[in-house]
Design brief:
Number of helices: 15
Strand order of the largest sheet: 20-17-16-21-22
Number of strands: 22
Shape: globular
Helix content: 25-40%
Strand content: 15-25%
Radius of gyration: 26 Å
Largest sheet: 5 strands, antiparallel
């Protein structure tokens, strides 16, 4: 686990006295790093508003000493130029409460007024800094947001108390949440979304991932995006929330990779797997066995004629992005084709048309770093042509069989491994149909389902150990 130090300016005896474990900048400069010290994290409360100040050097030295620090030098420099938050991300505007508050203090992501908390959390995720002042002002009929750093000396007595509470909560809940006395070499964030209807892993699977990680010296913590205040404090990120390109899962994967974390799913895999246009083109180029597919970009009568000539009816239309059978439509006749294409073109410039092939089940082969680790047969939902029936009043899915990979037909395994080779070396789930002993790859999923009592029904705990062992291998290659 990590040791946490709070470093304050030398002229802040009040904070030094009120906060157990706080040290002055002079002490940090003089006494650290120490021989055989544990992994150390720094909360830098020194004044960082001036370039080359003690606060600036505190973060700079922390990074040089291998200490994780809030704020980082990168964040300090970014806040010098990007202090108009509205222009940074206009999508935050809907989180601004409709009142006339002029100034809001954000202490380690916490605020005094609960209705500002969502916005404060987002801001802290973007600019992980102990003390931030969010100012709201009006220009004519519009409100504008400005983000500024502030120092401890600027705080009122009530704000002092807010900071002390935030420090206590942050160090305990974020950095010492699972301190059971056992020493871990690595820290991992497992990103989950408790509100997701069909998550990639159920609670039983997440619990087993955590246990498997612990056996290998990895402290794995399930966190939601709102809890993930600073990705830099972890060594690895395991995304167990449905990914998308225009989504925080992709942005978080990129940020984690940029900060040197071991990441599954990595951003390249998300980018490639989440877009079926890329997959279709790559399958054609690399001669991966797949169903006949056509990229559609026009609603013209000529285009409709060509689709009918190539596929006949029924055929399948697919949105380029989608998961768990969403964005996939069975088309029975021309008018339906025309109407559905018109609807889909409102959201995407391209749509995929694919030949329809009914089978009573699809294969799913789980592949990790180029090796098949599990296999399932997913059967179609009752009275439906897909595994998931999203149109039913009560969500339903078909039955399944979980098999050892050595019982999977060789054509299925070969197709799965060939498809993954063009994506990368991550964790993938390859969907395959088989007809007349021929395998057809439907898609490669970067965020495959691993549920307790489903995908682990054959391997059991070993499946989770295999995934975490791959994390350990990559962490060891990366180095401490």
């Amino acid at each position: 686990m990590f040791k946490t130090l709070v470093v304050v300016d030398d002229n802040l005896p009040t904070l030094l006295e009120s906060l157990p474990g706080a040290i002055s900048f002079e002490e940090y400069l003089r006494d650290y790093p120490k021989l055989n010290e544990p992994k150390t994290r720094i909360i830098n409360l020194c004044d960082t508003t001036r370039y080359l100040s003690k606060g600036y050097y505190c973060s700079l030295l922390a990074e040089a000493r291998g200490h994780s620090v809030l704020p980082s030098v990168k964040t300090i420099n970014k806040l010098r130029g990007d202090d108009n938050l509205w222009s940074i991300d206009s999508r935050l505007s809907h989180l601004v409460p409709k009142d006339d508050t002029e100034s809001v203090l954000i202490c380690l992501g916490k605020v005094a007024a609960p209705h500002w908390q969502k916005l404060a959390t987002r801001i802290f995720q973007r600019h992980p800094t102990p003390l931030l002042k969010l100012k709201v002002h009006r220009v004519e009929d519009q409100r504008h947001l400005n983000l500024q750093r502030c120092s401890f000396n600027e705080l009122s007595s009530d704000e002092h108390n807010l900071l002390l509470e935030a420090l206590e909560d942050y160090t305990k809940s974020t950095w010492r949440k699972h301190d059971t006395g056992k020493r871990y070499r690595w820290d991992m964030a497992i990103l989950v979304n408790h509100n997701e209807t069909v998550p990639p892993s159920n609670k039983g699977a997440i619990t087993r991932f955590v246990k498997a990680a612990a056996k290998l010296g990895i402290n794995a913590q399930p966190v939601s995006v709102d809890d993930l205040l600073s990705i830099e404090q972890y060594d690895a990120l395991f995304i167990r929330e449905t990914t998308a390109i225009d989504h925080y899962t992709y942005r978080l994967a990129r940020k984690a990779e940029e900060n040197g974390l071991v990441v599954l799913d990595d951003p390249d895999s998300i980018l490639r797997c989440c877009n079926k246009v890329y997959l279709h083109d790559a399958f054609n180029y690399q001669k991966v066995p797949s169903l006949s597919t056509r990229v559609i970009n026009s609603l013209s009568e000529t285009s409709l004629d060509e689709i009918e000539q190539q596929f006949g009816y029924p055929l399948v239309l697919k949105m380029p992005e989608g998961s768990f059978s969403k964005g996939v439509y069975k088309i029975e006749q021309r008018q339906m084709l025309k109407e559905k294409l018109a609807e889909l073109f409102q959201d995407s410039a391209l749509v995929l048309a694919q030949e329809y092939l009914y089978t009573d089940h699809d294969w799913r082969v789980g592949v990790l770093n180029g090796r098949a680790i599990y296999a399932c047969r997913y059967y179609m939902a009752r009275n439906h042509w897909q595994i998931y029936n999203h149109g039913s009043k009560r969500f339903s899915s078909g039955n399944y069989d979980t098999l050892p990979t050595f019982e999977v037909p060789k054509t299925v395994l070969d197709a799965a491994l060939k498809a993954c080779k063009i994506i990368g070396s991550g964790l993938y789930g390859v969907d395959i149909k088989v007809s007349d002993n021929r395998a057809y790859v439907l898609e490669v999923n970067d965020n495959p389902s691993i549920d307790h009592k489903v995908e682990d029904a054959y391997l059991g705990e070993e499946l989770y150990m295999q995934v975490m062992s791959e994390f350990l291998r990559r962490l060891e290659l990366r180095g401490r």
